[in-house]
C-alpha cells in the first residue's frame, strides 16, 4: 500500500517537473521569438520608412503595421487574435489562429515583392517566419512600393483603407486611366502631320475644339470730341503719277562712205635720165 503511494507520488512529481521544464522552455522560446521578431520587424520598418522604432516592440500592433505594409487591412490579423482568444474556451480558437497565419502570409508575400523577393519566398515565411524576417531585415534589398496592385485591392474586407500617422501609405493601384469624356484643353491642336493610330476611336462625348476666330484689326476712329484747329485744311492728295510716254530712239541717218583714192605712182623715168654721160 505504501509502496503504491510512493510510486504514485514519484510519478506525479515527475509529471509536474516535466511540465515546469516544458513551460519554462516555452516561455524562453516565446521571449526569444518576441525579441528577435521585434528586432527584425524594426529593420524592415526602417526600410519602408515607418517612423518610430517603438512600433516594432508592441505585440500584435507590430504585425498590424506589417499588414499595412503588405497592402492588407490591419484589422484582419487583429480579428484573428481576438477570435483565437474568444473561441479558445469552446475549442474553436484554431479558427482565429488560421486567420492570423493566412493574413500575415498574405502581407509577407506583398512585403517580399517590395523587397525584391520572388513569390516563392512566402513558403519560407510559413514554415520559418523568423528566418524570413531576418533575411529581409539585414540583406541589401531596398523598399520599392511601386509594384502591381494586390489581387484583393478591391475587396472591402482585406484591402487596406486606413491611414496611420508615421506609417507610409502604400500605393494600391496601377496607372490611372483617363476618365471617360476627357476633354483636351481649349484651343489644343495636334502637331502638324500627326495621324492617330490605326483603329483609334476618340472617347465617347469627345468634341474637337472649334477653330479660333480670324483676327480683324479694329477700324481707326478719332477720339470722341476731337475737333481739328480752326483754319486747318487737310493736305491735298498728291497728284496721280503718270509715267512719260515711251518714244523709241530715232534711227541714225545713212551716210555713204567716200570712194577710196587710187594709190599714187611715180612717173616713169626716161632712158638716159639720171645717168652721167661720157
Automatic annotation (TrEMBL):
Region (Disordered): 175-278
Keyword field contains Cell membrane: no
Organism per entry: Microbacterium dextranolyticum
UniProtKB keywords: Membrane, Transmembrane, Transmembrane helix
Keyword Secreted in record: no
Biased composition, class Pro residues, residue ranges: 205-221, 231-270
Biased composition (Low complexity): 175-204
TM stretches of this protein: 15-42, 78-108, 120-138
Protein name: Large exoprotein
